[in-house]
Design a protein that fits this description.
Elements (H helix, E strand, L loop, with lengths): L15 E2 L4 H12 L1 H14 L3 H19 L2 E5 L2 E6 L5 E6 L5 E6 L1 H6 L1 E7 L11 E7 H12 L16 E5 L13 H20 L1 H7 L2 H7 L2 H28 L3 E5 L2 E6 L4 E7 L3 E9 H5 L2 E8 L11 E7 H12 L3 H4 L6 H29 L5 H7 L1 H15 L1 E5 L2 E6 L3 E8 L5 E5 L2 H5 L2 E7 L6 E8 H11 L10
Antiparallel strand pairs: 1-2, 2-3, 3-4, 5-6, 5-11, 6-7, 8-9, 9-10, 10-11, 12-13, 12-17, 13-14, 15-16, 16-17, 18-19, 19-20
Helix pairs in contact: 1-3, 2-3, 6-9, 13-14, 13-15
Length: 493
Amino acid sequence: MSRLDTPEIDQSRQWQRLDPRMLLVHPVRELIRFLPAVVGVFLAGTASGNYVWHLVGVGVPIGLGLLRYVTTSFRITAGRIELRRGLLERHVLSTPVDRVRTVDLTASPIHRALGLATVRIGTGASSANEEDRLDLDGLPLDRARELRRELLRVAPPSSADAAPEPPERVVVVLDPTWVRFAPLTSTGLVIAAGTLGVASQAMNTFGGWERLDAGGLVHGAARLSWWTLAPALLVGLLVLVTLLSIGGYVVANWGFVLSHANGAWHLRRGLLTTRETSLDDERMAGVSLCEPLALRLAGGGRVSAIVTGLDRRQQGSALLVPPAPRPVLLRVARDVLGISGPVDAPLVGHGPRARRRRFTRALAPVAAAVLATSLLVLLADLPAWLLVVAAVGIPVALVLAADRAQGLGHALVDGHLVARSGSLNRHRHALATEDVIGWTFRSTWFQRRAALTSLAATTAGGQQAVTLLDVPEPAAVRLAAAAVPGLVDQFTA
């Protein structure tokens, strides 16, 4: 029985419009989208004394918003989802229901006020064009949740004595103490850079720097020594990044809940804009434990699902746990996989040659930098302290190489291929071997000299491949043959 052979979903062949309350949403969106043009039209109308331009400036975006609603419709028929939009250029999206990988429910503040939600259907199609996304914006919240449940539900057996579906099981809930990991992510730096960029642009546009200079602040700061001003600026920047990181973490993950029900994993989170994501059990190919260096030193990380059919631009939909303590990550990974072996099993090292390559690749650039600095100090008469600064990179490179060597490993356990690598951004992938669709052996000239190869297990989910770096060639062949029997036998002697 197919997913849509159930009476709950309206499979009318007639095209249906979205909720009429979107007539209040689309005009507001278009006004915000064309705000710079609207302001320009208002200024031009005021300067010329022709206030008709004011009506034009507001009327055109509102008209476009109304037109967007009128020209958008959808239907679910014959096991397909179809979305039609556009007036001058008709755009029709159509996909089979069995291609659905994820279903996201997103509600902006205005959507929440009106009781609406946007249903984003992930089908695995790779396109950077927003017009090629299958979004139903918007539907009543209850109807959106019912549609999500039916799109991801596998129909139960038709027997009368079939066991009822178990109730929703909550796996993890956001702990407020997790905000301590927020400053250790890059979110704060990104938000701070954007905020400072916008503030600087605003100062240039409205003459703020000239006003500061007229007030003597710039000249006063210039009279201060660098050693006096730099620490204050550094502390201020750290405080700003920390506050923005915590704020971004709270806004994105407020009310986070991970649960399992009806054969799918459900995630709910968001303060201003709420988001509900559902991942079908049948599409879960494994999990990925990500531990950036700063989070790892603090005992934290994040967990994502490897979902078949999702490309890299859709990986935000596969996040299972935001930055959280490592014990929580391991517990969730075990729960999602249903077994503990791929998460807890010890890994097989890749041998002394692979470890030696970690040190070579880390030290070679630093040695080149030290050599270049030495030549510049001798020939260009540069300050000698530059050589000391360059030499500091040697112990840093040694520590980094040792950490990379320690983190390198793999295992084949409980029907899962486990691969771990990296230092600044360490990953441990656990991929079900039944989802491996091919193998790639790739060796550079330096790897061939060391009899090593990089083995990539190709899959239709996540990053499209799980790669084992610098594996001895015989071990790589044996691993591929054992993981998927018969797939590489025809290429081996």
